[in-house]
Structures are given as structure tokens and as C-alpha cells.
Amino acid sequence: MAIICGTDLSLASAGALDVARILATGRGDDEVVLVHVIDPESGAATDDQTVARARAELEAQAAAALAAHPGPPTVRTELVVGPADLTLVGLAETEVASRIVIAARSTGGSLLRLGTTAERVIARSQVPVLLIRDPAPWLGYASGERTLRVLLGVDDSATCDLGIQWVQALRARGPVEVVLGGVYYPDDASERYGLHAHGMVDRDPEIERLMGRDLERRFGDNAAGRGSVVARARRGLGRIGDHLVELAREENCDVIVVGTSQKTGLGRLGSVSSIIVHDAPQSVVCVPPSTTFATNSVPVLRTALVATDLSPFANRAVPYAFTVTPTTGEVHIAHVVKEDAEVDLADLGRQLTALAVRGATQTVVPHVIRGDDAAIAIAQLAARLGADVICVASHGRSGLTRALVGSVADRLLRVTKVPVLVLRPVS
């Protein structure tokens, strides 16, 4: 495989080429393709003399990089006349490239200036795009002289999972300190965790504690790489992208890694990544939803929540919670009662505890929770507990009965972000 490095022949682009070669070495890629595009649509001249001069400068930049750091990977040059963004993205597809590297700090008339080609490349690319503003941290990381400090923007999107895998791969090759950045809005976060909202402006320590736990669990096993991992939950007032840029500055990060949504309609960038691309003083890595990685980790279900209405059928879901969790894990058994119901909480707790599988070594915790909407109450409890999976039985109603009665299991699937194991009735 190769890495595509776009150059406008500036000194900044020469630094991007150095970073591209470092990344290629770490991945074992064979070569870096150094590409200069003369785009007539931008007003660039395309006469023979201009093309020849650009080709000579391109070859000189490649030769200088090889002279400064001899050895693999090789540098192959490509000079193309045409649309800059389509050329870079097309070459990445043709060369089966692992990523595209371009300099974000270019000259005023550059084809790669932000807001034009760089943004369009990110919006169209099927592979991660690296905008290099300062190559020094990358060079120090590659030589082992310093630790690379990365802010990873974390949310609930699938592209975030890809960003996590990208950072984990980077940690496997050298020391990387990771700051997990998550932005919350108090009203949404309070609803998610089932907590009382204290206000829209002030920070909420309990929400930040729960979010910090969830950010770390989302990232995965910290022992899999070199370098520390810390979580930073930030209360949101305004745009998420602005908060992440500010957090990266406060944490002295060298790089911001973020997933891109690549919304339809002229391939527009998602708002968060677009803000970061434009405003961050650090290098930025944009990971698109089409990125593919070899699976390098298997989720471990340490904590299970099982919900039951204490009927014989619903209780059948309880053993499954013990099946999916390790012997050192936790099983939380929950029962939902109406807000105004008069019940014996102690007796219900004993009934729930008695459902535990005999001889099981998991920690068992009963929960009697109040809520007029059972699905939301269960989802909120799962969020507060940090459950890895919810187990629940479904009566399997269909047709008119399902429409009239509804299904807690079906509604739970819609309101929770936690995987749900649904036990269906025996046919």
C-alpha cells in the first residue's frame, strides 16, 4: 500500500512529506506518492514552461526528503493537471492508499489552502486525511524523542469507533498520550442518565464522572498501547467543535482526531469536523465512515443489566445475564414499579436477589426503580451503571395486540444506546 502526500511545493508541504514517510515506515507501506496538482479552475497556468518548472520543483522536493532521511519508503512523484481534490482522492483509490497527507499551513495562493481543496478532499476521501500544521511533534514521536499528545473527539457515532481504532494503532507503534474529549449538554445528559438537571450553564460533577467513565470504557483497554489515557468531559455552551478546539489547547495536544460524517449534498463536512479543520492550530486527522480496519479487539461484557417484571417468562432472561458476563463481572437485576405505586421495596429486593443463578460468582445487585415508562427507566439505569448489555424477555406479540399493548423490549431498543439481548418466547 501507499500513502498519498499532496504538495503545493512549499516548505510546509515538505514537512508533510516527512510525516507521510514516517507513517509509511510505521505501517510498513512500500512508498509515498508525492502529488502536485496544477488546477486550471483555480487560475493556475498550464503552459509547457510552467508545467516543466513545477515538475522540476516536485522532483527536487522528493530528492531532498530522501537525502535527509535515506532508505525506505521510496518517494514516487506524480504531476497532474486537473481538479486538485478529485485528483488526490482518485489517486488514493487507484493506489489503494492507506491515507492522504497534506499541509494545512500553506502559502496564500496554495491549491491546498483550507476552505477549498483541503476541505473538499476530506469530504470526498474514503481514507483518513491528515492535515499537518506542525511536523515537529510527529518527527519527535517517530524518533522516540517525545510522546505524541492526541485529543480524540468521542461521541456515539460509528465514525468515532473508527477514530478510536486509528489512535489505538498509533499507540501500538509508539508512545501516545490520549485525551478523550466529550462534550455534553446538561438537559440531554440528565435525561440520558436519569438525573436531575441542575442548570444549563453550570458544570455537573456527577454527569462528568459518569461521562468520564463511559469515555474510558468506550476507548477500550489502556494497556494495549504506550502512553496515558485520560477522559475530559466538557459542558457544552455553543458548538461542539469550538469546545474540542479549546480543550486541545488547554491540554497542549499536538493532534486532534475526529470522525467525519461526510453529509450528502456536495459532500459537505459535518459541522464538528469542519470547525476543527478550520480553527484548530494543531494538526488534524479526519477519519471518514468508509475507513476499514482489521478487527483488533473483542468487547468484554463485564456488567449486565437484566430487567424483569417478576413473571416466570420475564425471569427466564436472568440466566442469560450470567452467561454473557465473566465470573468476576456484575449482574444487576432490575424491576420497575410505577411512580406512585405502594410496594414493599425490601421484599422486592429479596425476590430479585433470589433470582440469581445458584453457584454463580458474579456480584449480584438488585434494583427496584420507579418510572411510568419502563423502557426509559431501564435505559437510564443502564446508563448510570455503565452496563455493557441489557437482557430482557419479550412476549413476542404481533399485529393488533402489539399495536395496542406495545412492547417494553421494542421501545427499549429505540431509547437505549446499550446493546440489548432479547429473549424471545419458544415457538
The helix-and-strand class reads: alpha/beta
User: What are the low-pLDDT stretches, counting only 5+ consecutive residues below 50?
Assistant: 106-115, 264-269, 399-406
So what's the CATH class of the largest domain?
Alpha Beta
Q: How many beta-strand segments?
A: 15
Task: Report the sheet with the most strands, covering strand number, pairing sense and barrel closure.
Answer: 10 strands, mixed
Terminal residue distance: 51 Å
Question: What do these coordinates show?
Answer:
This protein has 427 residues and is α/β, with parallel strands linked by helices. The protein folds into three domains: 1-143, HUPs (Rossmann fold), CATH 3.40.50.620; 147-298, Rossmann fold (3-Layer(aba) Sandwich), CATH 3.40.50; 303-423, Rossmann fold. The protein is 40% helix and 22% strand. The protein is built from 16 helices and 15 strands. It has helices spanning 11-27, 48-68, 84-94, 117-124, 136-143, 158-173, 186-193, 205-219, 240-250, 271-279, 312-315, 318-324, 345-354, 374-385, 399-405, 408-415, and strands spanning 2-6, 31-38, 74-81, 99-103, 129-132, 148-153, 176-184, 229-235, 255-259, 283-287, 303-307, 330-337, 363-370, 389-393, 420-423. Strands 3-2-1-4-5-10-9-6-7-8 form a ten-stranded mixed sheet, with helices on both faces. A five-stranded parallel sheet has the order 13-12-11-14-15, with helices on both faces. Helix 6 (158-173) links the parallel strand 6 (148-153) and strand 7. The longest helix has 21 residues, at 48-68. It is elongated, with a radius of gyration of 26 Å.
